[in-house]
Design goal:
- The relative contact order is 0.17.
- The chain contains six helices and no strands.
- The protein has a single domain (7-139), classed as Nucleotidyltransferases  domain 2 (Four Helix Bundle (Hemerythrin (Met), subunit A)).
- The longest helix is centred in the first third of the chain and has 30 residues, at 32-61.
- Helix 2 (32-61) packs across helix 4, helix 4 packs antiparallel against helix 5 (91-109) and helix 5 (91-109) crosses helix 6.
- It has 141 residues and is mainly alpha-helical.
């Protein structure tokens, strides 16, 4: 069984939760600069936690393949689908994780206020899914 340490992911998810709560409490018109800074922090923490989740899933899947190289060669889409087949994610979660990945890719290639606002809109659902994944992966220890 692959050794999975989810503590760093859990810490980053706690940071994301704190930042998104702070953002929700701000008036974007009255606190424009603070709102922009915290929104940017949320977007970056979203990207970080998504990448950490993908790496942990990749490690968790190594036990189901003949070699680590096979897992390393999987695209993120393939890897997420395998995680669904192995019960690490349910079908609806696989679809959402694919959408999260699309948001992350769009933001990374065309960072703009609109993209950051879109990420902020999906954060509540993402945080639930990411916490659930962290719990699932922690049980695999």
């Amino acid at each position: 069984m692959a050794v999975l340490d989810v503590s760093a992911l859990q810490r980053c998810l706690a940071t994301l939760s704190y930042a998104s709560q702070r953002l929700a409490g701000l008036d974007s018109a009255a606190d424009e600069l603070e709102y922009d800074v915290i929104r940017a922090a949320c977007a970056k923490e979203f990207e970080l936690t998504l990448e950490m989740s993908v790496k942990l899933l990749r490690r968790a899947l190594q036990d189901y393949f003949a070699s680590g190289r096979q897992v390393a060669e999987l695209t993120v889409r393939e890897m997420l689908r395998h995680a669904g087949v192995r019960g690490m994610l349910i079908l609806e979660e696989v679809d959402r994780w694919l959408a999260y990945r699309d948001y992350r890719n769009a933001a990374a290639h065309d960072y703009a206020q609109l993209k950051a606002d879109e990420i902020v809109q999906i954060l509540p659902h993402y945080q639930i899914d990411a916490q659930k994944l962290a719990s699932t992966l922690a049980r695999l220890l």
